[in-house]
Amino acid sequence: MHLSLTTIIAAATFIGEVAAHGYVPLLRINGKDISGWDITKDPYATPQPLRVVRGTKLDSGFISDVTSTDITCSIGNQKLPPGPIQATVAAGGTVQVLWNTWPLGHYGPVLNYMAKCPTSDCSTFKGDTGTPWFKIQQDAFVNGVWASDTLAKSNFTYNVHIPSKIAPGSYLLRHENLALHGASNLNGAQFYPVCIQLTVTGGGSLNPSGLGFPGAYKATDPGIHFNVYQSDAVNAAYVPPGGSVYPGLN
Ligand SMILES: *[C@@H]1O[C@H](CO)[C@@H](O)[C@H](O)[C@H]1NC(C)=O
Ligand SMILES: [Cu+2]
């Protein structure tokens, strides 16, 4: 019985691949809507609109090669956004990320990182060399539900809490869905990172860093090469890649 159920789930997941995965056309900060990157419209507009969410290639596909610079901010990371624009959020505040959709059954964690931009203008910062990143928040398998499914059932919305003690300034926020439905195969994990250009106000004096994208993830990490079709106990012991949340942020 268990095997056949697993097969059915795997088949259903596979069919789900035909549908779009999702992208982030909208952010909400303190109840105020801010345009994200709408892949159905923004790439075709002339002039190309300024957006705080980094543009991606003209699809919502995933990244599977963790050594690619696409892992930094999504497919086409080499292409910087058309110009300087950042959303302002207070340290300790919340950035609501509203995906247009997300398929149920793309089981996995939701991971969130930040990197301080070297200048006040984040649009010139690719973030794909060195180790400027630090992890701020992650959710994996909570009360028997993968964070990705919780996101899908929450109006496709995820709330990112901006640390209260980081220094004010310009940051990239790297928000990521990691889909593990095919991850029992090596290189079967699907990464969907999205980068958001922020101006953080207030805050403290912490200037964390230490992680590189690429660099922080390896294909063989136990949180990347992982079979989600196991018991809840095994899933509950799942350890996401990229290490722990940076200590002392709040
Ligand atoms: C649900 O998502 C839609 C589209 O992103 C948004 O316009 C709407 O305000 C959201 N609803 C709530 C209650 O947040
Ligand atoms: Cu998919």
Automatic annotation (TrEMBL):
Keyword Hydrolase attributed: yes
Principal location: secreted
UniProt KW keywords: Carbohydrate metabolism, Cellulose degradation, Copper, Disulfide bond, Hydrolase, Metal-binding, Monooxygenase, Oxidoreductase, Polysaccharide degradation, Secreted, Signal
Biological processes per GO annotation: cellulose catabolic process
GO MF assignments: hydrolase activity; metal ion binding; monooxygenase activity
Signal peptide boundaries: 1-20
Record-annotated Auxiliary Activity family 9 catalytic domain positions: 21-233
Cofactor: Cu(2+)
InterPro entries attached to this UniProt entry: AA9, AA9_LPMO
Subcellular location: Secreted
Reaction(s) the record says it catalyses: [(1->4)-beta-D-glucosyl]n+m + reduced acceptor + O2 = 4-dehydro-beta-D-glucosyl-[(1->4)-beta-D-glucosyl]n-1 + [(1->4)-beta-D-glucosyl]m + acceptor + H2O
CDD domains the UniProt entry points to: LPMO_AA9
EC number: 1.14.99.56
Gene3D superfamilies membership: 2.70.50.70
Cellular component GO terms, alphabetical: extracellular region
Domain of life: Eukaryota
Family: Belongs to the polysaccharide monooxygenase AA9 family.
Protein name as catalogued: lytic cellulose monooxygenase (C4-dehydrogenating)
